[in-house]
């Protein structure tokens, strides 16, 4: 069978990325231009600055990716683009670049949901096996998604308020860690002990999550301790917070695996990099005898490799858009 080369483009937040993936599994070349150093000074991503950086970077990133792959646009079968969700100004830059290339080179344009990309980051490790549960944990999403075949997604539940990554970043900020704080908090947690009493949120029968209560509990705790003139043990607070956050995820994953006869689990999104979550998921999946996959660190945070991988299956599923395709800041995964 002829090989299929997909060019993926991702610009939903603060990474400008292009990648070429063969047959949905083989990474040929990837280029990522990160803006972390620019946004760090503001303590978070500034949307207006992010879009301007994407404008500056997008053509350079695309050219570099093709050069690295030693391919030309003629070799590309289709262009996969993150159409949403994300920052609208950022999304539009990638989308316009994708549309322009699709128009000039007469290539099919494949719209990819950002979360489908995060799930398919696992396909670069090992081809997805079904029935599958995707544990989606990122800066914008916390969801349990069931898949019975390629590119068919059923959302079982999601967060009722904050996403887990967002909660990590806010808690990190409260204890003065530099943006992006999630990974720094994870490192601190490894050094600490669970000594602070924090709630495990939403212990109910649903597949939903809630992180705003846990976030407020940490903020209140830090505030009260500081008012009393007590020093916060940051390592112990990080360990206590991580224990509650991970337990909130694990309890719902356990329920979903048991209720839905799941045999394969993948972790998807930036928080898939979290050591505490990886360890707890490994233990759970080993106890329940299900197969667990999570992406290497380079595929956990935003990249176009995962978009190109997902794009291959979206293309096979006939999901081709015309040039009226628009970006969406919010959209359900379907
Ligand atoms: O998937 P992603 O790159 O962006 C979205 O699609 O939202 O995820 C970014 C999120 C940030 O909130 C970041 O702090 C968090 O992932 N993150 C982590 C870790 N590494 C990244 N959170 C906890 N532990 C980590 N090791
Ligand atoms: Zn992401």
Straight-line distance between termini: 29 Å
| Name of the CATH homologous superfamily of the largest domain | ATPase, nucleotide binding domain
> Could you say which structural class the secondary elements and strand pairing correspond to?
alpha/beta
Rounded mean pLDDT is: 96
Number of separate helices = 11
As an assembly, this protein is single chain
String of helices and strands: EEEHHEHEHEEEHHHHEHEHH
Shape: globular
Helix content: 40-55%
How would a textbook summarize the main sheet? 5 strands, mixed
Regions with pLDDT < 50 over 5+ consecutive residues?
Answer: none
CATH topology call of the largest domain: Nucleotidyltransferase, domain 5
Number of domains: 2
Overview of this protein structure:
The chain is α/β, with parallel strands linked by helices and 334 residues long. The protein folds into two domains: 5-121 and 299-316, Nucleotidyltransferase, domain 5; 129-294, ATPase, nucleotide binding domain (Nucleotidyltransferase, domain 5, 2-Layer Sandwich). The chain is 44% helix and 18% strand. It has eleven helices and ten strands. The strands form two sheets. The protein has a five-stranded mixed sheet with strand order 3-2-1-4-5, with helices on both faces. It has a five-stranded mixed sheet with strand order 8-7-6-9-10, sandwiched between helices. Strand 6 (132-137) and strand 7 (142-147) form a beta hairpin. The model has no long low-confidence stretch (mean pLDDT 96). 5'-O-[(R)-(carboxyoxy)(hydroxy)phosphoryl]adenosine binds at residues 13, 118, 138-140, 165, 168-169, 180, 182-183, 186, 269-271, 273-274, 301-302.
């Amino acid at each position: 069978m002829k090989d299929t080369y997909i060019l993926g483009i991702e610009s939903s937040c603060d990474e400008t990325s292009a990648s070429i993936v063969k047959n949905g599994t083989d990474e040929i070349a990837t280029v990522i231009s990160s803006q972390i150093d620019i946004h760090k000074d503001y303590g978070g991503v500034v949307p207006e600055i992010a879009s301007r950086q994407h404008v500056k970077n997008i053509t350079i990133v695309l050219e570099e990716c093709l050069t690295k792959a030693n391919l030309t646009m003629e070799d590309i079968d289709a262009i996969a683009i993150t159409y949403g969700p994300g920052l609208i100004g950022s999304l539009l830059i990638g989308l316009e670049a994708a549309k322009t290339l699709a128009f000039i080179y007469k290539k099919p344009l494949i719209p990819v949901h950002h979360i489908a990309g995060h799930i398919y980051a696992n396909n670069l490790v090992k081809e997805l096996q079904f029935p599958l549960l995707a544990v989606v944990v990122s800066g914008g999403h916390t969801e349990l998604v069931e898949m019975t075949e390629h590119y068919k997604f059923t959302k079982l539940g999601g967060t009722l308020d904050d996403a887990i990554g967002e909660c990590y970043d806010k808690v990190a900020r409260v204890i003065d860690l530099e943006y992006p704080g999630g990974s720094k908090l994870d490192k601190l947690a490894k050094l600490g002990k669970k000594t602070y009493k924090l709630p495990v949120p939403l212990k109910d029968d649903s597949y939903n999550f809630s992180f705003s209560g846990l976030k407020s509990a940490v903020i209140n705790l830090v505030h009260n301790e500081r008012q009393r003139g007590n020093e916060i043990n940051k390592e112990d607070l990080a360990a206590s917070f991580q224990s509650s956050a991970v337990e909130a995820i694990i309890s719902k994953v356990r329920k979903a695996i048991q209720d839905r006869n799941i045999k394969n689990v993948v972790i998807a999104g930036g928080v898939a990099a979290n050591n505490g979550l990886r360890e707890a998921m490994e233990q759970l999946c080993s106890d329940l005898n299900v197969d667990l996959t999570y992406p290497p660190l380079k595929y956990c945070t935003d990249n176009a490799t995962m978009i190109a991988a997902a794009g291959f299956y979206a293309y096979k599923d006939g999901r081709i858009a015309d040039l009226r395709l628009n970006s969406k800041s919010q959209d359900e995964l379907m």
